[in-house]
Design a protein that fits this description.
It contains two helices and four strands; from the N terminus they run ααββββ. With 78 residues, the protein is of the alpha+beta class. A hairpin with a 2-residue loop joins β3 and β4. The two termini are 23 Å apart.
Length: 78
C-alpha cells in the first residue's frame, strides 16, 4: 500500500475550506462543513492509494501525471 503525505499548505487549504463552505452558506453549521472536509481527507488518506487513476491529459500535466475522482455525494465530484 502506498503512503499518502499531505503537506502543511494542503492541510491549511482544507482548514480554510471548512470555514469557507460555512461562510458561503454551502452548509448551515460549521460541524457539517467539518464533516464534509473530514470525509474528503479520509478518502485521501485511506482510499486514494487503492483508487484507480488515469494519466493526465497533456494540457493538465503541470498539475500532476495522474488524476482520479472523488464523489462526495450525488451532486458533487472532486
Amino acid at each position: 500500500m502506498e503512503k499518502v503525505i499531505i503537506e502543511k499548505s494542503v492541510m491549511d487549504y482544507f482548514d480554510d475550506l471548512i470555514f469557507k463552505l460555512f461562510e458561503e452558506e454551502y452548509f448551515s453549521f460549521v460541524d457539517f462543513s467539518l464533516d464534509y472536509v473530514g470525509r474528503i481527507l479520509d478518502f485521501i488518506l485511506n482510499d486514494l492509494p487503492d483508487t484507480p487513476r488515469k494519466k493526465s491529459p497533456q494540457n493538465l500535466i503541470q498539475h500532476g501525471s495522474f488524476y482520479t475522482f472523488y464523489k462526495a455525494n450525488t451532486a458533487t465530484t472532486w
